[in-house]
Amino acid sequence: MCRHRRATEPRRTQRGALLLEVLVSILIFSVGVLALVGLQARMTEAQSESKYRADASYLANEAVGLMWSDMANRSNYNGLTCASHARCNDWLEKVGSTLPNGSGSIVIDAATQMVTVTVNWEHGGAGSRSFSTRTRLSDAG
Questions:
Q1: Are 60 and 95 in contact (CB under 8 A)?
Q2: pLDDT of residue 8
Q3: Sheet holding 103-109, edge to edge
Q4: Each residue of 2-40: pLDDT tens digit?
Q5: Where do runs of H (alpha helix) occur along the chain?
Q6: Spatial distance between the Cα atoms of 108 and 111, rounded to a whole number of angstroms
Q7: Distance from C-alpha of 30 to C-alpha of 47, rounded to nearest angstrom
Q8: In Å, how far from its chain's centre is CA 53?
Q9: Around 70, how many Cα atoms within 13 Å sit in the side-chain half-sphere?
């Protein structure tokens, strides 16, 4: 009886080590893939939020442009009277259709002719968002 092992016989203590290494590799790979999926989701959310901010900025500046081109009727854009003025009402409808739960308001200070245009919207679970711009309307050239 020979007590020496042959070189081709595997050690009994090494059984299953390769399987364990493969399982650890799969675990590490899975964690990496999940991290990439999470990163992609966050990037998509940030891109959507950025688009809504850009749209809100454009819409607010569009309202200022409407008032500049309609200086004779600028008081019709103020507060609650805005919805009764056709051009302002069209702008309000555009805000509502462009942004999720979008709404807009225009406040004109009669004394200083300062105009504040505010655009509000909601983006998913992030809550309410708002963009405001201020400018001065004046007939003086």
A1: no
A2: 66
A3: 103-109, 114-122, 128-136
A4: 566 566 665 566 677 888 899 999 999 999 999 999 999
A5: 17-69, 86-98
A6: 9
A7: 26
A8: 7
A9: 16
